[in-house]
Amino acid sequence: MASGPPVGSTGLIHHPYVPPHGFAAPQPAVHKASTVIFPDVAAMRSTEWKDKTGYTYGLHGTPTTFTLEERLATLEGGLQCLLVPSGLSAIATTCMSLLRTGDEVLVPDNAYGPAKTLVQGELMAWGITHRYYDPMDPQDLADKIGPATRLVWLEAAGSVTLEFPDLPAMVRICRERNVITALDNTWGAGLAFAPFDLVPGTGEAPLAVDLTVHALTKYPNGGGDVLMGSIVTRDPQLHLRLKLTHMRLGLSVGANDAEAVLRGLPSIVLRYQAHDATARALAT
Length: 284
Prior knowledge:
This protein is α/β, with parallel strands linked by helices.
């Protein structure tokens, strides 16, 4: 479960990481491990491998990857996070976890190109159909949601062409029809808007997407030398569905790569502001 200070430069720099006794440093240690040692067989059998209450195997997480997951969940306003080898892997893992033969997925027509290739290739081969909708027309999305629709992908902004959809309207449409919403939040980076709090609730739960995927390769890392992705959720049951698929596929990230993203996070706000200022200057 994510906890800590409010998101922002101060929160990202002064995260409540507690170093080992007698050693103080701003960055967490890099833990590399495949095998995890238990004091005895009883301890091993009593460890719950489905959550973050203990360590079971390097593939399932280390203190380094758990720390990164917690900080990313906090950044995006979620409660749980999974790390995967790339942004595309986050999209594929989500689809494989939530879709079955006979289901339908809706994708914006300005979606990330490899995501389109995925739905046209592997998903079609598995009997999962897809349709494209106009991301600038909420009514088009509403008209295309059918009885078999189980998942709607959202992008804000759209890949390459950068149209920005009416996210609250689209999320409302999907919520009314009990369809899961998945947002590719790579461009937003957890900074441009709050995907899990699109419209603050007034006595009810805030309007929110169900999950976000993020290519950590981009803004969080910032150095162009790491491939990694994330899946962030707020619903424990949805997280568990995704986590089971994640574990069955044997997905993992390296400790050094996780540390590189952790090292880049404290400066993400300043870098994002610089990107924004430069883009506006070039546009004028």
